[in-house]
Structures are given as C-alpha cells and as structure tokens.
Design a protein that fits this description.
Layout lengths: L15 H11 L3 H13 L3 H12 L25 H12 L13
Helix pairs in contact: 2-3
Length: 107
C-alpha cells in the first residue's frame, strides 16, 4: 500500500494568480451577465430567482432528520485488541438490545 494517499498533483486550491487571471478574463462579460440575470429574475425565471436569493441572502441551513437511537462508544474498548477481537466487538454492538428497554417497540 506504499504510495497511497497524500497530496495529489493538480489538487487543492489554485494559486491566487490563476484566480486573478480568470477574474480579469471574465470582467468584460460582467455587465452583460448581470443585465441578463436581472431580466431573467424580473420575468420570474425560477433559476434566476434562486441564484439571486442564494447569493444575496445565502443558502438556508440544511437540517438532517435522524431516526433511531444514537449510541456512543468509548473507543478505549478497542485498545490492545486484535482485528478479529475488534470485529467481534463491533458485531456485538450491532446486535439489538435484549434488555427489554426497547422504547421503539410500542409494547
């Protein structure tokens, strides 16, 4: 597995100089693009209204609905264990709780 991971050639943020060159190359189109976006938003084009609102107000926060119970595991239980022992521990953790305290069963 040697040689895997790490920085990849061409990855990461481009140098500020490259970014500045792109901005300068697009500068002549600025007024035309703003005018077309304005006209599209005024005419009610959904994509233009959405784009305007996202840049003006920012995208709304996304919420994530979690179903089920979250369990927290102290990672120290894995210390000093072999791979086989760790796999066995994980399988035990995945088993449903047989203590009769299952709140989701409705019984």
């Amino acid at each position: 597995m040697a040689g895997k991971g790490g920085a990849m050639p061409g990855s990461g943020r481009k140098p500020k100089n490259d970014e500045q060159k792109l901005i300068e190359a697009l500068c002549p189109y600025h007024d035309n693009v703003i005018e077309k976006l304005s006209k599209a938003a005024e005419s009610g084009a959904p994509w233009a209204v959405k784009l305007f609102l996202e840049y003006y107000y920012g995208k709304p926060k996304q919420s994530i609905k979690l179903d089920g119970e979250l369990k927290q595991t102290d990672l120290r239980v894995f210390a000093g264990k072999s791979k086989a022992e760790i796999k066995e521990l994980i399988q035990e953790m995945k088993k449903p709780d047989d203590s009769g305290t299952d709140q989701g069963s409705g019984e």
